[in-house]
Amino acid sequence: MSNKEVKAALKSARDAIRNKEYKEALKHCKAVLKQEKNNYNAWVFIGLAAAELEQPDQAKGAYKKAIELEPNQLLAWQGLANLYEKPNQTDVKGDLADVYQKLLELYKSGDKQKWCDVCNKLVELYHQEKKYLEVAETWQKLIQMKEEEGAEKAELHQLWKKMIHLLKDSTRNEDNKTEQLLLNAFEHAVNSADTIPGEDHQNLYKDFIQCLSKFPHEAARLKKACNDMMTLYPTMTYPLEVLCLHFINSGTLSEEALHCFSRIFEMDTSSGPGIIGFGIKCLQEKKYKEAVKSLTEGLQKTNQCPAAWYYLAEAQVKIHKHRNAVLSCNQALEGLGISKDPNFGWKNLALQLKAETLIKIADADAAEEAIKALEQIVGASSDPVISAIRGQAYLNKGLMDEASKISQELLSSHPDLAESHALEGYIHYSQKNYKQAERSFLNAIERKAETAEYHHYLGLTYWFMSDETKKDKGKALTQFLKAAKLDSYLGNAFFYLGNYYRDIAGDKSRARGCYKKAFELDEMDEESGTAAVDLSVELGDMDTALSILNEVTEKASPGTAKWAWLHRGLYYLRSGQPSQAVADLQAALRADPKDSDCWESLGEAYLNRGSYATALKSFRRASELNPGLMYSIYRAAALEQMLGKYDNAITTYQQILKKTENYVPALKG
């Protein structure tokens, strides 16, 4: 076949392809290859025809042969790209990306429009594969090409926005290079917007700031973006809120942070981050109740702020709301689990605070939970304070040997640490070794004099050591006063001050004040509540007694606060208000249905009200629960007599006389 015949055969092959006669085209190409086995165009036409005849392997082989012959010729690369783009081609995305890369190289010096089209296709392919770095780098080349061609600012702005859209899911991948390219795209988009200020620009800025807030190491860039946005949009609270949350979550409570909190609070008193910031400021100023109130309110309006939950837990611990504090620590830890920040600082702080708080709850289950929390702290084994907390947890669980072992190790390795001596003190105190406990707590106070708990435990040690130390003003009383001064929310210190003033100093008025304070601090403290009510009655101050009882009963759920219902019921009984007495004594029995004395009092209230049959049932129930209650048995007999049940009455009187021969009321009956 001559050169002329080869050209004619190739023309026939091209015409056959144009007329969709693909088999005919293959014949012409094969004839050419017999003569010229390295004919580039023949291989390209075979690829094209085979592809149309759905013979992909033959097509691929033909194109690759052509590429091998002429690597920098476009036709074969274009044909291979068209083949790989067909829907029936699977598992070729990697190969297709390589083909697009080559096409970009070949188009670069020539057809710019085709270069852009291939670039778009390559980006789309990378995006499907979630190869965000390749997406970013390729799209940036497209923008660079457009800039070199002198594209309009508006077109470039749209390209930067498209790049942001393409990379919006890349923040989950923790790839620093992609992250920097995304932030760079945001900066270009923000600065190239047409209308500044304007709604679109405002939303773009918000997205930029939101994106920056996901990267803890971009603090400086975040601050700059927020400040720049505030300059452009001075009435918008969003950048200020983000800045507040940044300061809160980074634990930075500088003048700058406090100024930020104040500024947002002035702009919008309902802003969640602003309210949280105000709460943290209150915590710093030791206004703990206000801190709890503000932090709780702020957290209801703010998503994902683990640090604020930690600050709330801290404030709750300060006012001895330990169970609430544990729940807040759990919320902080849950939020930190979702967060990408690898910094273990907050997590360790939350776990330690949770463990310390659980120890104050002081039961075995809480101690077990405390031990589990301590096990999760990174670097806990080298921290002596955490070892001391673990020792207390073992002590609360009743594992004395483990607690003692930790105590001995700490005293040997860290003799200057207050917590080492305090742990030893707790162990001695629990074993009633009061002399040794005194020495340990004095050592702890010498090293950390401002810890209320150490003074309180030293006070308790003196209280139980002997009558002499209990009565000595310089011992128990002094320590309880110091504890109460250092921690005005330590209800138990006020309770023991009440005991001192009542039982030793004989100062009922001052004692009543201390019990009242202890009860106000902890409404679950029935001993303090009862003592405050009893002393108010003794002092003739029924108004105070009733106000305490009314407050408790108003808040009480059914089946609780027995002591308050009982006290108020007995007051109504004594003051001739039997109907109110009946209602309160019934409420007390819901809390404790087996209290025979309460049943007897209820019987008396029914009797005074004239409800004889019900009174009889109550007295009988009292005597069933406690057969030694002679008054209830007698009252039941008297009521049977009154109701005309003489046989029953006689039998009951005889039962009384068998037990007590000279019980005059029964003899009379």
UniProtKB/TrEMBL annotation:
One matching Pfam family: TPR_19
Keywords annotated in UniProt: Coiled coil, Repeat, TPR repeat
InterPro entries per record: Ski3/TTC37, TPR-like_helical_dom_sf, TPR_rpt
Any GO BP annotation: RNA catabolic process
Cellular component GO terms held in the UniProt record: Ski complex
Superkingdom of the organism of origin: Eukaryota
TPR repeats: from-to residues: 40-73, 562-595, 596-629
Coiled coil: 3-39
Name the UniProt record assigns to this protein: TTC37 protein
Source organism (scientific name): Xiphorhynchus elegans (elegant woodcreeper)
Upper lineage: Eukaryota, Metazoa, Chordata, Craniata, Vertebrata
Underlying gene: Ttc37
